[in-house]
Write a structure and sequence with these properties.
The complex is a heterodimer.
Chain A (H helix, E strand, L loop, with lengths): L9 H25 L10 H31 L6 H25 L5 H25 L7 H25 L7 H33 L7 H22 L5 H26 L8 H21 L1
Helix pairs in contact in A: 1-2, 1-3, 2-3, 2-4, 3-4, 4-5, 5-6, 5-7, 6-7, 6-8, 7-8, 8-9
Chain B lengths: L2 H25 L3 H34 L5 H24 L3 H33 L4 H8 L10
Classes of the chains: A mainly alpha, B mainly alpha.
Chain lengths: 298, 151
């Protein structure tokens, strides 16, 4: 049975927020130090390090920390021993991300297996405990289905990252670019976009005083995005290069555009005149998401 | 959604609508209208909190024997919201847009987090424990209307 006393102490989340921004600072410094040459290709050591400073170091820490609070409050799900979980997951993400970035930036690929082992242990524990809570809850909020998919997306992204580390350190099971594309697709689509959508379904109407999302969106978006990512995996693992990729891209683009446009439309109909930071960030994010879709489609 | 959760969540929606109306008037600096809209909201909020504290929570506590549980946390949060409601009324009376906006933003965050916890955690627990007495309890709460949650 869910219980308010089991909502995690705020420190379980704060410890993630305390260290996450420093990875963003490090990304800025690294880019300033290396200059435009760092971004000439997605495969330069600096570009790979920058990507993981932002995604694994900054975003992942902030998202996991926030979920420890969000899951119990928004879905009524119990996260088992949140302080204990945070004390395992936080240091493993911190150390794993730092080692991963060091390994990629300096091309010391012998450190990759260690970083993946540490990240795999921490994220494996996080995904397992969160999933148990999310699948056992009797409550049924608008965010629940997307959060279940998002945690599954994080688990798949982690496994793909570990396979990628193995491929880069000498035992490739498939072409590295294909695996990297799949890892990025699941990380950005299955974890980041799915989580953002799931949180938005609750948070945007509640704090920005907009109308509710249309009921079909919280039901259809996770499934559609899940089918897109499944098709991408089929294309990569079955080495089918045509229709599954087209299906994956078409469905993912549809999800991103519909989610962004619906959110902007809801914001337009808000009952609160004041534009605060949360409102501005959400609007900026939705416009950026649409721009990213068009930039990626070129 | 079961009877108690449905009635209480519906009343949350009604309070949200009244709060939004007051906020809109305050944003336009229509101070008299904002004050009267806010008073309607304040009255409904007080009705809601008092109903929980005098009817729903005691029934839940006596049925389950859980005295020091989630209902204590909810009562504490009510006690945190009540002074804010008074401060907003004073700020509206003083026609001070900065204070009105600050206090109303604070109340919005406190109130929505509180509502989310009640709707997702506490009301389902209460519905499970008091299922057989739901119609009498909803009648006793006397929320004035028969609101339904708009999604």
């Amino acid at each position: 049975m869910p219980s308010l006393e089991q909502a995690p102490p705020i420190w379980a989340s704060f410890r993630f927020f305390l260290t996450a921004p420093w990875f963003g600072v490090a990304a800025g410094l690294l880019l300033a130090w290396n200059g435009p040459a760092a971004l000439t290709s997605r495969w330069t050591p600096t570009a790979l390090a920058l990507t993981h400073l932002l995604t694994t170091g900054f975003m992942l820490q902030a998202m996991c920390g926030a979920l420890l609070q969000f899951i119990p409050v928004a879905t009524g799900a119990n996260v088992w021993r949140p302080l204990l979980l945070a004390s395992l997951v936080h240091p493993t993400i911190f150390v794993g991300a730092a080692t991963l970035v060091f390994s990629l930036a300096t091309v010391r690929l012998e450190f990759l297996p260690a970083s993946e082992l540490v990240l795999g242990a921490g994220l494996g524990a996080f995904c397992t405990v969160s999933s148990i809570g999310l699948f056992c809850t009797a409550a049924a909020g608008v965010s629940l289905m997307a959060l279940r998919f998002a945690v599954a997306g994080l688990a798949v992204t982690t496994v793909l990252g570990m396979l990628l580390a193995q491929a880069l350190s000498g035992t490739p099971m498939m072409a590295v670019p294909t695996l990297a594309n799949l890892h990025a697709a699941w990380g950005l689509g299955g974890w980041a976009l799915m989580l953002l959508a799931g949180v938005s379904f609750t948070v945007v109407p509640m704090f920005q005083m907009t109308p509710h999302y249309p009921p079909w969106l919280p039901r259809l978006l996770p499934v559609t995005l899940g089918i897109a990512l499944g098709a991408a995996a089929l294309a990569a693992f079955a080495l089918i290069q045509t229709w599954p990729w087209i299906l994956a891209i078409a469905l993912a683009v549809l999800c991103a555009i519909v989610f962004a446009l619906v959110t902007l439309q809801l914001q337009h109909c808000r009952r609160r005149a004041r534009t605060d930071a949360s409102f501005a960030f959400f609007r900026g994010a939705m416009i950026t998401l649409i721009a990213a879709v068009f930039a990626g489609s070129r | 959604m079961s009877a108690i959760a449905s009635a209480m969540s519906g009343h949350h929606s009604r309070c949200d609508d009244l709060f939004a109306a007051a906020l809109a008037k305050a944003s336009q600096e229509s101070w008299d209208d904002a004050a009267s809209e806010f008073k309607r909201f304040h009255d409904e909020m007080e009705l809601h909190m008092r109903g929980e504290e005098t009817v729903l929570f005691p029934a839940f506590e006596s049925t389950t024997g859980i005295q020091a549980g989630p209902t204590i946390v909810m009562r504490q949060e009510h006690d945190r919201m009540r002074p804010l409601l008074t401060q907003i009324e004073m700020a509206l009376g003083a026609r001070d847009p900065e204070r009105v906006d600050g206090y109303m933003s604070t109340l919005l965050i406190l109130m929505q987090q509180h509502n989310l916890k009640e709707e997702n955690i506490l009301y389902p627990m209460i519905d499970a424990a008091l299922h057989d007495h739901a119609p009498e309890l909803v009648a006793q709460l006397d929320l004035g209307r028969n609101p339904t949650r708009s999604q």
